[in-house]
Amino acid sequence: MSKRGRFITLEGGEGVGKSTNVGFVAEWLEAQGLEVVCTREPGGTERGEAIRALLLDPAPQEPLHVDAELLLMFAARAQHLAEKILPALARGAWVVCDRFTDATFAYQGGGRGIAKERIAVLENFVQQGLSPDLTLLLDMPKEAAKQRLEVRLRDRHEQLDRFEQEQADFFQAVRDAYLARAEEAPERFAVIEAQHSLEEVQTQLRKTLSARVTAWR
Ligand SMILES: Nc1ncnc2c1ncn2[C@@H]1O[C@H](COP(=O)(O)OP(=O)(O)OP(=O)(O)O)[C@@H](O)[C@H]1O
Ligand SMILES: Cc1cn([C@H]2C[C@H](O)[C@@H](COP(=O)(O)O)O2)c(=O)[nH]c1=O
């Protein structure tokens, strides 16, 4: 029977470079001879992507209640775990996921103000003990991240989604919540200084991955 794969997540606020670096992390792991499944949240499955569209809708017809937002995140996650993440880990593949439950604690907890104890109830119910083996937290000041996001939106002719339309204090609360979680679980988190050039960020990522993969073997 093959050994269970490892579960790696990338986290951080808007525009810090998660999507840019998911492929880098996956390619680095593949170069070590590992099977890698790349995915994202909310989403990652057909139903999860439909829920994502509801959650990110830039111009919803009516406001989305914060509890409904929280439950939709976990509904998408339950489907994602059952259909994609758990089968991949069970056959020995490594899963690289752009956001997971730390995002819920940061956005719905820090940003929206939902008590972390309530989020933890859903985390236990849906994940039944599963949590990432390594979380790469890309951290940088929110002002610089916003500038990057603006460049991306302009270059790709995209519009701000429902979360990206939030105000500066929301993004500060999200960043603070992420950093608090990293402090609570230093053995799982690696905080990457994301304000540097892409080359420097990827050097930090490579060093972190190399140390972890060696330790796990
Ligand atoms: N280290 C870097 N230096 C300069 N620009 C960067 C760096 N990393 C990413 N970028 C650019 O910043 C923009 C945002 O990056 P990216 O889309 O990867 O962020 P993200 O964290 O996935 O954002 P979101 O959460 O909003 O989807 C992109 O245009 C990307 O090319
Ligand atoms: C998993 C998760 C995500 N979110 C938010 C964070 C982002 O604003 C969007 C996803 O968009 P991205 O371009 O892929 O970053 O969803 C959240 O609020 N809670 C969560 O659990």
From TrEMBL:
One GO cellular component assignment for this chain's record is: cytosol
Instruction: List UniProt keywords, sorted A-Z.
Output: ATP-binding, Kinase, Nucleotide biosynthesis, Nucleotide-binding, Transferase
Give the main EC class: transferase
Output the GO biological process annotations, alphabetical, semicolon-separated: dTDP biosynthetic process; dTTP biosynthetic process; dUDP biosynthetic process
Q: Which residues bind ATP?
A: G12, G13, E14, G15, V16, G17, K18, S19
**Which Pfam families does this UniProt record tie to the protein?**
Thymidylate_kin (PF02223)
All copies of domain Thymidylate kinase-like, residue ranges: 10-204
Question: What reactions does this protein catalyze?
Answer: dTMP + ATP = dTDP + ADP
- The family this protein is said to belong to: Belongs to the thymidylate kinase family.
General function of this protein: Phosphorylation of dTMP to form dTDP in both de novo and salvage pathways of dTTP synthesis.
Tell me the protein's name: Thymidylate kinase
* Protein's organism: Vreelandella glaciei
Source organism phylogeny: Bacteria, Pseudomonadati, Pseudomonadota, Gammaproteobacteria, Oceanospirillales
What gene does this protein come from?
tmk
